[in-house]
Amino acid sequence: MKYCLHLLLLLCSCLLLNCPTYAGGLSAWTESTPGGNKMEYDGTAPAMAFFSGAHCDSLQFPIGLKSWYFYKNHVIGEDGSTFYVIREESCQVHRFTSEVAFKAYLSERQLKPWIWKRTYHPLNIWDYFDELVFMSFFFSPVLLLLLIADVVILVGLLRGKKQAYWKYAFLSAIPLVYIIGALLQGFPQSW
Question: Which pick of 30, 39, 88, 128 has the fewest CB atoms within 10 Å?
Answer without folding.
Answer: 30
